Amino acid sequence: MNLPPLVQSFVLHFGEMGSRWGINRTVGQIYALLYVTPEPLNADQIVESLGISRSNVSMSLRELQAWNLVLLKHLPDDRRDFFTTPDDVWQILRTLAEERKKREVDPTLSVLREILMQQPASDAERHAQERMAEMHGLIERLTTWYDDVKKLETDRLATLLTLGAKVTRLLEAKDKIVSLGRSKRSPDKA
Amino acid sequence: MNLPPLVQSFVLHFGEMGSRWGINRTVGQIYALLYVTPEPLNADQIVESLGISRSNVSMSLRELQAWNLVLLKHLPDDRRDFFTTPDDVWQILRTLAEERKKREVDPTLSVLREILMQQPASDAERHAQERMAEMHGLIERLTTWYDDVKKLETDRLATLLTLGAKVTRLLEAKDKIVSLGRSKRSPDKA
DNA sequence: CAGTTATTTCAGTAATTACTGAAATTACGA
DNA sequence: TCGTAATTTCAGTAATTACTGAAATAACTG
């Protein structure tokens, strides 16, 4: 591997983290390299930079494409494939969230749904189904929220993030106003 | 493996998903089993239920404990260890988020910080640092938000989730009120 | 079309990770 | 203290995953 020291640290770190993130070392390294490099790179440049086999680069790029984490570019008068990552880190975040959901959450959601359709044949199964229903309920809530939030334009999403838990204060305020209005017109029965 | 069919489906699914979630098959299966079983189980019961070796169970329980996903219980007049999962799925979610952040995000954050401290020695390094700064900024924003939100009590968190993107409407309303107030007193210069 | 370059595929091998059984350790109870 | 039950450790092996090099395929060019 022959890279500027700062780049190398970054690339090696992504390689090490790869396994924790559900990708492998090479995939992590290639992603990191593309991310910090200003111009798109072709496969041979990656081979050169990371000191790995051509076939490994080919397979890893395919993997990164499956994750939608990489863009294929073509330069004029050059028939080689060049690759980069999207510039916008928010877009990267969205892609990452979408793909992880698809791989890590959706399959479980559908298995849970399937099991919950069945008739329990014992107390054990009845109890198990109850627990699965709780899990299913939580996951559904989370994914509904996610589907909702992912539609926001980036600057609104950023606002939402910055606001964080402060939103609840806003909610409290709203509650007060609402209950105030209600108490004027028709006070709570409880 | 000798389990009621519904339980078995669930357990096998968690086993299969294990690798995608960064845990292994056995750990996933044990977790699933404990999650749906009403009473705490001891190691031998797990061996029995899943048909795996005693030592594997021991190691996997240790792993689950490292994740804080499992509770150790003791029954009176029985010196064996019994295990369950917490009842509250929201609590489980919090633990999961915390542990994944610790393992998957924090190390990268600290590597980024370290690299960003260094003096770039070339244009390539300068550009790479800019990209890393973008990534660092985004991750910091996300973790700040997370630190903020995780402090909320569960019902507030649930409200926030249910509200989802609708919050932005509330924000728009607030913006209007604020800008209205401002325009009365001292209109924008821009 | 033949020759050249770029990319992919895939069988074999290397590296890593998961699991087992036997032995060691720990924690009691008589 | 000795014996027994519970748990852990760990060396060896099995299973899985990652990677390579050679061969095949695809995409162009003259």
Give a description of the structure.
The structure is a homodimer of 190-residue chains. The first copy, chain A, is mainly α and 190 residues long. Chain A has helices at 5-18, 25-36, 43-50, 54-66, 89-117, 123-149, 154-163, 166-185, and strands spanning 41-42, 71-73, 82-84. Chain A folds into 2 domains: 5-84, Arc Repressor Mutant, subunit A; 89-182, no CATH class. Helix content of chain A is 70%, strand content 4%. The radius of gyration of chain A is 24 Å and the shape is extended. The termini of chain A are far apart. In chain A, 22% of the residues are buried. The structure holds a DNA duplex (30 and 30 nucleotides). Chains A, B: InterPro entries: ArsR-like_HTH (IPR011991), HTH-GbsR_regulator (IPR052362), HTH_MarR-typ (IPR000835), MJ1563 (IPR026282), WH-like_DNA-bd_sf (IPR036388), WH_DNA-bd_sf (IPR036390).
